[in-house]
Design a protein that fits this description.
By secondary structure, the protein is α/β, with parallel strands linked by helices. It is built from 14 helices and 19 strands. The strands form 3 sheets. The chain has a 9-stranded mixed sheet, with helices on both faces. Helix 10 runs antiparallel to helix 13. It is elongated, with a radius of gyration of 27 Å. The termini are far apart. The chain binds zinc ion.
Length: 512
């Protein structure tokens, strides 16, 4: 009897002790996020940031293990899968592209060698000789009455075009979208290859290292068409090509080696509790990839594994906390929880998610991203973009519940708002701040861990702050998903206009 009585007493006592909320919160209603358990969340973090994960580099099997781990946590929590995903995995077709070491173009008597005065930008192997046709800037734009191909036939020949455009254009645009457009156009007109003559503000040797290294990209349809960038710093080649109009020459290249790489976003859904609001979605994002392994930095440290505990296993585990809390007690709006791949190597995860959203983009009313480099103050959270949306109060309140003050970006000169996955959604108009562990400056305490081998969940890691951080993130997200008014940009924000367009709103009166 006694024994049983004691057991009953113990059983009654245990839940009392476990459910007792944080000090000072006795009078507040309880939320599942209040109960998150430090040992459990430390375990998630220790696993994702362990040496065995080898730095969670995109395209490696280690990141696949991390994805599987997050997916199984979603399953255990009871998240619903989203359309277009396999289980919780949204597969992204990635290609690892390795440029060749050799190759050459002979053009108008000049021999241009791969890695010296020429770099291949796109395409497979090509051995060819025949005619080269100069096509000006290689663009066609009926609206501006531009047709650089007028009267020219490039079928079966190589098109030679100048870099950029006649009116002068922004450098990045010339290097990316404009260059790709020129490639597509030349291919459509039946050219064998495109040679772009580079003359611009950036030094040629920067291209040699940039285009010369192996890299990952989302696989695109037009990977076979051969496209070169050639140094023409003083315009000699362009002048010569322009004068000769056409000439004979040859091309020899082994082409870019393309290997398919497997990677995924890990996405799950919680249906909102309010039938009137559940067609609106709050998106929660955090990248779960990091930068892998690197050669040791001198004799000081032999560590080659960049564990990425702060960047961004912390944010990834905060998503697991959201999955656990919201399935127990859903907020009014629906919540999409998305662990994103590829942030550190070009933002492929957020790019792909924005192109293949699990709900119509104009129904996604907010993105609360979480990412960070480290923390120098365990009494705060730093929210990059805090003051830029009407969710500011909700975030401040969500953090305050666990004794943390939310502060805005203290280092705008670092341009942090545009350095994580939130940028992609913000540019489309979705209000999208980044919730980070607390920092006041990008100083020594941050640089000690930011993209270094020291970013581990080791003995110096503050697990009790980490748990508060997870709780604050989840509760802020909950308060946003429960907001009466749909959250939006503060008037005059850089992205307000994009937001008005996305959500079919009228132009703001101030701008009419
Ligand atoms: Zn990061």
């Amino acid at each position: 009897m006694k024994r049983k009585t004691l057991l009953y007493a113990a059983m009654l006592a245990i839940p009392m002790a476990v459910t007792s909320p944080d000090a000072g919160a006795q009078n507040k209603p309880a939320f599942p996020e209040d109960q998150l358990n430090q040992a459990e969340y430390a375990a998630h973090l220790r696993f994702l940031a362990s040496d065995e994960m080898r730095g969670r580099m995109t395209g490696t099997p280690w990141l696949e293990v991390a994805a599987r781990y997050v997916a199984e946590q979603y399953r255990a929590a009871g998240l619903a899968p989203v359309q277009g995903a396999e289980g919780y995995l949204q597969n992204i077709p990635l290609a690892r592209r390795t440029p060749p070491a050799a190759g050459q173009i002979v053009l108008g008597g000049d021999t241009l060698r791969q890695g010296k005065s020429m770099m291949i930008r796109n395409g497979g192997a090509l051995e060819w000789s025949g005619g080269f046709v100069f096509v000006g800037y290689g663009t066609v734009d009926p609206e501006r009455a531009i047709d650089d191909y007028k009267g020219l036939d490039v079928k079966g020949k190589v098109a030679v075009a100048k870099f950029g455009s006649a009116g002068g254009s922004d450098f990045m645009g010339s290097l990316t979208s404009l260059s790709e457009k020129k490639r597509q156009l030349a291919a459509e007109l039946g050219a064998v290859a495109l040679v772009e003559l580079y003359r611009g503000p950036r030094e040629w040797r920067l291209f040699l290292s940039f285009l010369g290294r192996a890299g990952l990209d989302i696989q695109s349809g037009s990977s076979e068409f051969v496209h070169f960038l050639v140094e023409d710093t003083v315009g000699t080649l362009a002048a010569k090509a322009e004068q000769q109009k056409g000439s004979a020459g040859s091309i020899q290249t082994p082409g870019i080696r393309v290997e398919v790489a497997k990677t995924s976003n890990v996405i799950g859904l919680v249906r909102g509790s309010d039938p009137k609001l559940r067609d609106e979605y709050v998106l929660l994002t955090a990248h779960y990839d990091h930068i892998g392994t690197r050669a040791p930095r001198g004799a000081a440290s032999a560590d080659t594994i960049y564990n990425g505990a702060r960047d961004n296993a912390m944010g990834t585990v905060a998503l697991i906390a959201a999955a656990r809390s919201f399935t127990v007690r859903p907020p009014k709006r629906s919540v999409i929880i998305a662990a994103l791949t590829g942030e550190e190597v070009g933002g492929f995860g957020s790019r792909y998610l924005a192109e293949h959203p699990p709900a119509p983009m104009d129904h996604i009313v907010f993105d609360l991203n979480t990412d960070g480099a480290g923390f120098d103050d365990t009494t705060i959270v730093t929210v990059v973009g805090l003051e830029r949306t009407t969710a500011q109060e909700a975030i401040i309140k969500g953090a305050r519940r666990y004794g943390l003050a939310a502060i805005k970006d203290p280092v705008p000169e670092q341009n942090l708002f545009n350095r994580s996955d939130n940028t992609k959604f913000a540019s489309l108009g979705v209000p999208a701040p980044t919730f980070s562990a607390g920092f006041h400056a990008f100083g020594d305490e941050i640089n000690k861990y930011y993209h270094t081998a020291a970013d581990e969940a080791g003995d110096d890691f503050n697990f009790s702050y980490f748990l508060k951080f997870c709780k604050a993130y989840v509760h802020s997200a909950r308060l946003i998903a429960d907001m009466k008014e749909k959250p939006f940009w503060i008037p005059g924000d850089t992205y307000e206009k994009a937001g008005r367009k996305l959500y079919h709103m009228k132009e703001s009166p101030a701008r009419q």
